[in-house]
Amino acid sequence: MKLDEVREKYLEFFKKREHAVIESVSLLPENDPTTLFISSGMQPLLPYFLGKEHPKGKRVTDSQRCFRAEDIEEVGDNRHTTYFEMLGNWSFGDYFKQEQIQWFFEFLTKEINLDSKKLYVTVFEGDEKSGIPKDIESAEIWEKLFGGSERISYYGADKNWWSRAGSPEQMPAGEPGGSDTEVFYDFGTEHDKSFGEECHPNCDCGRFMEIGNSVFMEYVKQEDGSFAHLPLKNVDFGGGLERITAASNDDSDIFNIDTIASIIKRIEKVSGKSYADNKKAFRVIADHVRASENIIKDGIIPSNTEQGYILRRLIRRAVRFGDVLGIKLSDITDGNEEIIKEEEKFRKTLEKGLKEFEKISSRGNISGSDAFVLFTTYGFPLELTLELALEKDLNIDEAEFRDKMREHQELSRKGAQQKFKGGLADHSEMSTKYHTATHLLLRALKDVLGEDVAQKGSNITAERMRFDFSWGEKMTDEQKQKVEEIVNTKIKEGLEVTNEKTDGKITYTIGNNKGDYSVELCGGPHVENTSGLGNFKIKKEEASSAGIRRIKAVLE
Asked: In this structure, what CATH number is given to the domain that contains residue 460?
């Protein structure tokens, strides 16, 4: 089966069962500074699991585009990809375990025609410390469907429990969570004992592949550490579209499904080499190019920060593996300008990095600190440094390198945690000025483009503002100039900034005795008067994602 066919069958299957089909959102989260990309189907729907009513009702289904940066180093085996689609169906206080398990089993065996004897499942074994019982109900439903219990396994909270905070023990008071049941497809390949003496559904040897996971959100943690049932029980299902497609073809190599195989064939044609003999290089290039094209489509360009940094890393890693095959990415990307420009830039960087490597290697074995500098300053991934060191018969202190990387990642995480809800990096004087200016910018955009314009996110530092808003096309130079003029006029008018708290919410008003110019609910810091903001200047206006534009501006 083809990817599009499986997606269509899934959505139609749940549409017939009274689910509203919703569109995939952008890979870039809205108003969520804690994460760079949408990495699961449930992420955009979290508010509806916490009590908010979904406008489409209690049953929805979708196929959500996802990207997982943490899987970059994993790409190269038969199953990991950084970019993928997650099939989802959701029940917000409607159906529960019986319907969900039966429907997914029916979809797999009747619509996709999988052999039920090749399906294995795992369920939650319970958590004695937290007082959460074994999920016997799910196991009994599976037992009836399978006609026996031999393909049902129990696992603990590390495998068959879901909450945003992790295990039941790690969850804070007020956090919802629940057990899950995972479905695996058995490709029947021979067990590799280097992954353990016995094979089992969660084994990494390649025989089993997880294709779907039904989370049953039914608990909430109490102040005393115990768990109570949620007033409404929810179902959160996620199934890998690419993995289900691979299972439908009984082919354990996810890179053989039609959408990825087309890239593999292009690489074979350009390189003159076969996929069978160069699997890792082919897989890395195919995945990273596919992921890069999708990230770029949603408005990101390569840079040294946040999503742009991840995109840069993908492209550069693909370039290196392209060199292994003797090809350029520009030969296989259908003229994607951002990928081509980044490849050219990286090749220039590589020249500098190779000179630095020669200096370092002339002193003998390479320290982890040196390998880290090559990575952060010259863009050399560890595998490139290892490859070059091997050629010179030198050793690398990989343990020290990984320690340095952990320190670097911890600092990055702390930086992300310091972001405030309003998108502020700090509460410094300049950040406060920029935050106030976003209120003027939004009102000016409404004046110029129309009242339908809505804020879709912001990111503010002491040096600049980044402001996302709903608008379907590029702004004209005249429109940008008019917005700038309006904002600067309001700054020069010296408008007062006042606030009023009502029902626990703070409303900020910018205006004078002639009337209010901007009135918005907000929880961030503001100046008392616009006169001290400086001169507002739009530096760039660009696409952020489908239907979303982004303005980058400074106060001079």
From this structure: 3.30.980.10
